[in-house]
Each structure stands twice: as C-alpha cells, then as structure tokens.
Amino acid sequence: MQPAASRPSARPHRSLPARAGIGLKPEHFRAILDTAPDIGFFEIHAENYMVDGGPFHHYLTRIRERYPLSIHGVGLSIGGEGPLDEAHLDRLAALLDRYQPESFSEHLAWSSHGGNFYNDLLPVAYDAATLVRVCEHVERVQERLGRRMLLENPATYIEFAASTMGETDFIGEVVQRSGCGLLLDVNNVHVSCTNHGRDARDYIRALPLDAVAQIHLAGFAVESDSLGAPLLIDSHGAPVAEEVWQLHCHALDWVGPMPTLIERDNDIPALPVLLAEARHAERILERLLPVAAESAVS
Questions:
Q1: Which of 4, 83, 147, 190 is the most buried (most CB within 10 A)?
Q2: pLDDT score of 5 more than 60
Q3: How far apart are CA 47 and CA 28, in angstroms?
Q4: Neighbours of 188 (CB within 10 A)
Q5: Which of 158, 157, 162, 155 is nearest to 131 (CA)?
Q6: How do residues 205-263 score in pLDDT, each as one tens digit?
Q7: Distance in angstroms (rounded) separating the CA atoms of residues 30 and 60
Q8: Reduced to 3 states, what is the DSSP secondary structure of residue 284?
C-alpha cells in the first residue's frame, strides 16, 4: 500500500467554494436557468446521469456552465464483500470526465451482493477484514477516477456485535490508509448517535477532522423501535432540524468554513424553500469567514 501523498489519486483538483449548495432536482431545472440564483454549488447523484444523452444532461450541461458541481455516488457499494462493479466504475469515470466536478463522494456502506442490488445503504461491521476491503475499494476508485474521493459517514439503525472497532476509529483508519477525504454528514451523526445512545459532539471530535472537505445537512423522520424508544430515520424528506443546525455549528467550530449541502430527496419543495435553507447555512458560514481569514494571516 503506497503512502497517500505518492498516489496518483492524491493529485490536487479544484475544490468547492466554502458556501452553501443544494441538490439539483429536475423539478427545478428551468427555474434555475431562468432566475440564476445566487448559490454556491449544486450536487447531483451520479446514478441519475449514467446515460449518454437526454433532458437531464441537457439541463445539467447548461447549469454546469454557471455553477460549481459536486457529484455524489450512491451505488458503488464501497463496503460490499465482493469486488467493485467495474462497469459501474467505468460509467462513473465517464460522467466525471464529462463534467469535471469539483468534488466526488460516496458512502461508507454497501448496496449490492451476489448480483442483487438493494435500494438502501446498508451498514458494515467495523473489523480488520472490513477495513482492508474498504481501503482496497477506496483506492481502486481513486485510481480509476484519478482523483481523491470523499467518504461519507453513515446513518445507521443497527450495529454489528462482531465489530472490534468504533465507527470513528474505523473511518480514521480508512482515511489514513487510503488517502481519501471525509464528507461529514452532520445529519447522519445526529441520527446514528441518537439511535445508539451516543454523544454526537464527542463523535464529531473523534473523526479525522483535517480530512473533512464537505458537509451535508438534511432532515430526518422520527419513528419508534420495538421497545418504544425514538428511532431516527435519515429520510431527506424534511427541513434541517434545529438539533442538526446546532450540531453543524459545533462541527464548523472545529473544521472551519466548509462547502455545505442542503440535501432534500423526498417531498421536494419549491426552489425558493431550498434556497432559503441554503441561505441560512450561508449566514452561518459568513460569520466564520472573517475568523478563518484572521487565523490564516496570523
């Protein structure tokens, strides 16, 4: 295993601005082109664009001319037991070559096994064998794409009794061994820590925070487990909750201003509603920017 700094995947690329962005949804294509909103960047799900042509590419090409772009994968199955799907990876590489996004990210999860594909992001056991496998998968992705990828911390509802490492220790090892970056999903932290009875702020401080290059914020749904205790679901179907905003501010105190995405994948509201949430995130970032600039000078 090569040191991270010597791998081709560690080559520098353009980065997203330290502003707020939103997920790009077909419902908003025309409004974005007509109104040219003041937004830091847009993010797409890679799997929605893995075709040669069609209206999605027509609109994305025009929007990409005006805005920075982040591409977020949901189908690589980084945590899967089997080898990566090389055909899927080829399609992903073609998409990134086409649009040259400032950022690419994927999940610490699995979604396929034995030729079967599941419409979910499923958890992994945190042990030595999984660590080796995940690092090999991340390194293969970075080698094929010729860029550093970001790995997103998961939202989980169950844990493996066989795990021999904590989640933050596992993520830290993956980052150190593979040279990848970290996408800090603050909503996932809140969801997982609530579900497992842990302190979300302690969790964030235990991550490899110097590897964070982007933040995700989203809404969650509240259900109950079999014992009647609250069970949070990472639904992406509601506004960002106040608890997540507070945790976001805590995270920014440690990592500084970061590109921050408002995720909304279900119950999509009108564009102005998402832009208002993004503007709230941007006001938080703007309060930090003078502090960050002063620190850089000193």
A1: 190
A2: no
A3: 18
A4: 24
A5: 162
A6: 999 999 999 999 999 998 877 777 789 988 989 999 999 999 999 999 999 999 999 99
A7: 11
A8: helix
In this structure, are residues 185 and 167 in contact, taking their beta carbons and an 8 Å threshold?
no
Average pLDDT over residues 133-157: 96
Determine the Cα–Cα distance for residues 279 and 261; give it in Å rounded to an integer. 11
Run of H or E including 187: helix 186-196
Look at residue 230 and give its three-state secondary structure: strand
Residues 69-101 have pLDDT tens digits of: 999 998 899 998 889 999 999 999 999 999 999
DSSP secondary structure code for residue 4 in this structure: G
Q: What is the DSSP string of 30-73?
A: HHHHHH----SEEEEEGGGG-SS-SHHHHHHHHHHTTS-EEEE-
* Burial class of 10 by CB neighbour count within 10 A (0 to 12, 13 to 18, 19+): middle
Q: Is the pTM of this model over 0.70?
A: yes
| Structure-block tokens of residue 187 | 């909503």
The conformational region for residue 52 under phi > 0 = left, psi -120 to 50 = alpha, else beta, is alpha
Overall size of the chain counted in residues = 298
Task: Report the largest interatomic distance among the alpha carbons of the chain, rounded to a whole angstrom.
Answer: 55
Instruction: Return d(Cα 75, Cα 62) in angstroms, integer.
Output: 25
- Give which of 17, 18, 19, 15 is closest to 279, Cα–Cα: 19
Q: Which structural domains are found in the chain, ordered by start?
A: 4-297 (3.20.20.150)
Under a CB-based contact definition with an 8 Å cutoff, are residues 214 and 259 in contact?
A: yes
- Name the one residue in this structure whose structure tokens are 């991340």: 138
Angle between helices 271-297 and 242-255 (to 10 degrees): 30
